[in-house]
Every structure is written in structure tokens, then in C-alpha cells.
Amino acid sequence: MSAATAPNGTANRGVQRLQAAFEKARAENRAAFVPFMTAGYPSYAKFPEIAHELLQRADILEVGLPYSDPLGDGPTIQRASEQALAGGTSTHVTIELVRELRRTSDTPIVIMTYVNPIYAVGPEKFMQLCAEAGVDGLILPDLPPDQDIEISDLADRYGLGVTFLIAPTSTEQRVKIVADACTSFMYAVSVTGVTGTREGSALNEVPRMLSLARKYAKVPVVVGFGVKDAATARSVAQVADGVVIGSAFINAIAQGQDVASLADEIKAGCQR
Of which family is this protein a member (predicted)? Predict the structure, then answer.
């Protein structure tokens, strides 16, 4: 398959499915509920069971590709990645796990990955594998869009949306660059730093950041980092198109708590 050729029927497939998810949430007067789970956590065998519980409740499921140097992730997700890697969850295994999920669910699934795993496989091969497995989009936390030589173009050829991140420290020029590059949704990091639960006051920058993002965004804007429960989800949902929750679910699994109940509680908080 040449670099200029994508499989038949893949054009815009992921983007369209993601857009439909946001439209459905908007029609129900709520922010989209976007839970995160590290692929292969807490084990290869248990991950699909937990992911299915989340998929039944999610508007979009974000699957983290385990990586040995996850600079944007806090201790909770770092530990989950280490455990998944120790259990044998590689890039190829992550994609196969998504393929299994896709057999029983039409809910959009996006993979959060750093750039190195993409280049380790080969950018086009990575996109081809994702498209064939039913992945709808990619979240790229360590790739500045103005330094993206080929990944976005390849993703587009294979029908995958791409998402880049902004932070409270992002300048207006940087926000515009990111907004121009996002094809599925834009990801606003609520606080400066890594993922993990924080006090609700840490979300104070969200309204200002969202106001700036909406000046340029051509796609929905979601907020992540620091959302841990229904109360913080409700606060973010008033201004964002989607709410991402990750560490809270990882912690719940580690403590033997019921993930489904937590998901129901947080999704209820996404109502406006």
C-alpha cells in the first residue's frame, strides 16, 4: 500500500463517529463523558471486562497505550503503564485489544500515545493497524502540531482524527496553532503539570482557557487532568464539550472499587 493510498471506506470514518458522539451529548444537554483506561491494566485478562463497562456508559473511550517514559502522566497512570508493560501489553497488543472491543461496541475509541511508539512501528503501518482495528482517533500529548511532519497527514488518509493539547500556560498564538491542527477534538489540560486528581480549585483556569480556545477551535473542546468525581465533572461540563477522567478510574481499580458505579456517578455529573 502506498503512502498516498488508504483502505477503501476509511476516509473521515473516525472523525464522523467522534462528531456524532459530541452531537448526541449536546442534544442531551450534557458534556460528552470520556473515561480513560490504560490498555492491559490491571491485567490483559481484566482490561476488556472493565473497558466494556466503561464503553456502555461512555460517549468516547480513551485508551492509553502503555509507554515507558510517559512524561505527561502522573504517578497513578505511570504505575498503570508499568504494570501493563510488565504484563506484556505492547503497541500491537493495545491495538488488538481495541479490535476486540470494537467487535461488540460502536462507541468511539481513541488511543492516547506518545510519538515514539508510533515511530517504533512506522507511522504509516501504525495508522493502518489502527484503522483496521477500528480506532477512531489519536491523542498526541508530546507532539507540537507545528513540528508534525507526517503523522497528521497519515492519520487523515486512514480516517483517524487527531487531537493536540493546550494548557493554561499556552499563548494565544499556540492555541491558534493547536486549534488549526485538531481534526477530531481539542484537549484542554486543566492545570499545569501531569495527570492526576487535584482539588477542585485547581480547575479555576478552565473557563478562561476555554474562552480562548473557542476563539479558534473548529472542533469540540474537552477538558482533562484534575477531574475526579461528579462535582468536578459538573464544574467542567458547564464550559466544555467533553470531560476526560482517568486517574480516578485507575485508583478505583487499584482499590477494588466498582468502576461501573463510579462511571455512572461521574457521567451524571456531566449533565448541564
Answer: Belongs to the TrpA family.
